[in-house]
Amino acid sequence: MIDLYTWTTPNGHKVSIALEEMGLEHSIHPVNIGEGEQFSEHFQSISPNGRIPAIVDRDTDITVFESGAILVYLAEKSGKFLPESGPARAKVMEWLFWQMAGFGPMLGQLNHFVNTADEQVPYAIKRYSDEVARLYDVLDKRLDEAEYVGGDYSIADMSIYPWSAVAYDLIKGLTGKTLANVERWQSAIAARPAVQKGILVPVL
Ligand SMILES: N[C@@H](CCC(=O)N[C@@H](CS)C(=O)NCC(=O)O)C(=O)O
Question: Is residue 203 domain-resident?
Answer without folding.
Answer: no
